[in-house]
Amino acid sequence: MTLTLRCAAATVESMQVLQEMTDDVASLARDAQKVAVLTGAGISAESGVPTFREVQTGLWERFSAQDLATTDAFSANPALVWTWYRWRQSLIRQVEPNPGHIALVEWQRHLAERGGRLTIATQNVDDLHERAGARVLAHLHGSIFTHRCAECGTAAQLPDPTYNGFESPPEPEEPPVCQDCGAHIRPDVVWFGEMLPMEAFEATAATIRNADLVIVAGTSGIVQPAASLPLLALERGTPLIEVNPELTELSETMDYCLRGSSGSLLPALVSAAAAQ
Ligand code: OAD
Fold it and tell me: Which pLDDT score is estimated for 18?
């Protein structure tokens, strides 16, 4: 069964949203002891970090985010790709976690106090879950804050970039080079066509297989193999809830689709979970 609940804008008070939820969703949230959450770019959208589906401006107006997140793009135009990531790194440093991130922290604490657990696996390369106070099980696509040589893999320590993340830089900057082999330094993120870190992937698969409720928030469900992870819940018939304002590639397999922003719906789910 797929139930679509229509929820309005992020400004809706969480209790109002909660009242629109069915008893089913509220009781799933209340009864779950082992909750696995998979997040994507959408959970950081209300903090001001653009998702990978948004139209870009400035230096990158002719490129989609997906065009830039590849080894081919980095080989063809290292400065353009490097500057895009450094600029996004600056932007992430300038923004704050939003109520969606904070709700997951509250749920994590609530369950921990009762002997349960909530695990977070994210496709996001930002650190907004951590800055909200959450423990994150897995960053499936790496971190924008660490860097390594594109050839020999040696880790590189770099100062923080100094871009204004709210404005596109005037011109691209060449990436630094590796002190060991002289090749370009790249962000330590997973690009399209690259392998995900095995440990992060397996830990996420295990927590989803083991969960009694799976929440999929703010992901388009397009990028594999991360998008296939929630489907592991189907093996045991574990309920799946999607939180997203839009229909996604995963919506059909969900038991419940909560249509709205994670900044309003996750706090509502947590209120339901905490209700006695
Ligand atoms: P996408 O950018 O593909 O999708 C973002 C999703 O967030 C969409 O489904 C939106 O409808 C949804 N969304 C937007 N605003 C939202 C809000 N306020 N609350 C909840 N949801 C909202 O992001 P991902 O699915 O995370 O990979 O993409 C996964 C990967 O694709 C990224 O890690 C990156 C990207 O290309 C690589 O770089 C390899």
Answer: 53
